[in-house]
Amino acid sequence: xxxxxxxxxxxxxxxxxxxxxxxxxxxxxxxxxxxxxxxxxxxxxxxxxxxxxxxxxxxxxxxxxxxxxxxxxxxxxxxxxxxxxxxxxxxxxxxxxxxxxxxxxxxxxxxxxxxxxxxxxxxxxxxxxxxxxxxxxxxxxxxxxxxxxxxxxxxxxxxxxxxxxxxxxxxxxxxxxxxxxxxxxxxxxxxxxxxxxxxxxxxxxxxxxxxxxxxxxxxxxxxxxxxxxxxxxxxxxxxxxxxxxxxxxxxxxxxxxxxxxxxxxxxxxxxxxxxxxxxxxxxxxxxxxxxxxxxxxxxxxxxxxxxxxxxxxxxxxxxxxxxxxxxxxxxxxxxxxxxxxxxxxxxxxxxxxxxxxxxxxxxxxxxxxxxxxxxxxxxxxxxxxxxxxxxxxxxxxxxxxxxxxxxxxxxxxxxxxxxxxxxxxxxxxxxxxxxxxxxxxxxxxxxxxxxxxxxxxxxxxxxxxxxxxxxxxxxxxxxxxxxxxxxxxxxxxxxxxxxxxxxxxxxxxxxxxxxxxxxxxxxxxxxxxxxxxxxxxxxxxxxxxxxxxxxxxxxxxxxxxxxxxxxxxxxxxxxxxxxxxxxxxxxxxxxxxxxxxxxxxxxxxxxxxxxxxxxxxxxxxxxxxxxxxxxxxxxxxxxxxxxxxxxxxxxxxxxxxxxxxxxxxxxxxxxxx
Length: 673
Ligand code: NOJ
Ligand code: CA
Description:
Number of strands: 39
Radius of gyration: 26 Å
Low-confidence stretches: 1-17
Shape: globular
Helix content: 10-25%
Bound molecules: 1-deoxynojirimycin, calcium ion
């Protein structure tokens, strides 16, 4: 009897010695499961969605300069679980209320070696995806250090059908998306979208601050395991850090299909709330026009001279037009000195407090104020960070005095200048610079619209003056790009890819397709009705009406631009297929009115739109801006019709979309039925 008991005890010890500790975290609806396993080689994670493998066991950890990696021989000192289920209201956004519901586990690990370094890995599992990050707490063997590699892996379960843009290229994020098997992707920016017959996922990051951005690099023989490759400094170092350090979240959004990815708030939810004491009264979404498109189509120029775009007279014309319409702001590019000649090819000479000759900024800003229009500032740096940072504080003070409450940033250039070294636009250098910009702007009550900046990672939750950004191949490419411009399917790809990271300043609204005088090889790859639909399908709290006032003058279709809001109570992606078509419905934040945008690629298609999103029992006046039957993006883009009818939530609209076309619809609640 004694002997038997002894054997049982020994076998329990053996089990404890050899079993790998594991922790499972499920999403609140139990569809999504993360499994963490600790072995001598380190901690790994894997992800399953509705029992389908999404990510196979994948490594976690770091490599440092002059120190061994922090990955293996770890022991779990503490495991803390918690669940949060709350709602919060952004100052502006696609929804006036956001649900934040997740289960979390934080595992505090320490090395069994003499170094005894520590790290905590935290996983949050929501119904719409997973976020995980590292915390390196204050500790004696890790104080000031250099990260040379983040060892985080994404061992994807299959060679999914992938939509991606290449990383480490000269035009930053401004590329047409590629569609290929995951195994053929070498190195890609995030967000990256992967499709399977059972689900769709988007890999990205959230809350990127004081760190380098992540791109995904294919690292293995089977070609479907990727490393979280950190964009390096010019000397190859990845991140200069101090403990305590909290990394950005690595995110995996998951849904049954790509349309539902658009209804996820994961990226915003993984960012910190804004501090209660910050001033936000000046932060207002809205529409703007500006001295801009005429430069891109070659009619005007940023440089002073015969075709100078930024003149007092032209700015007043824009303000006059805007004040007669529902347009809040007027942007003036080329307003300051430094644009002379080939400004993008020399060390920058921009002065941010000195208006260009021919542009009377005091008169223009006073006129704008009188007319109830905001002058929108422009800080083009041409990637000259020092030239800009030396003037930044004065530049925002100057604008504040003029009543400018919104500034568009620009970083044209293939690399950023850093004391004789050339930095990527997406490394820690830019992340830290852009954070200085957003903070300095907030001090002067200025909203920011960033072009050529770092990608969005949801930081607008924490810094609500960070309104929108480009980080995409925008309308400007249809203006003067030597390759002729964007493809007709581009705007039915970017909502499912780039759009998942946050607002896009795409600058829609071109009405005049006949601008080939100086640009014989360029064209707009849409119909006019699709230009209107983009105001709904491409979300931005600052939305440009990009064409010239004379092209909008007395144009019946401009009524849609006048009416369409830029701040929403609800947004629902209803139907779509990446690269093919998309239908989104949004409800105005301040009324019961709804707006729908439907867009197609180069193909004609008939779509059924059940109006079940409208409030039951109410009657709506429906105004549709639709492609005429003979409309075609290439041969007849301007042919459109405006149709009025009444309907309720029990009706179904039939949308006849022509090649490269779309439809924009306003639903105005008229009365109770
Ligand atoms: C690139 C920006 O994306 C574009 O909108 C702007 O007009 C030019 N830079 C000049 O600053
Ligand atoms: Ca650009």
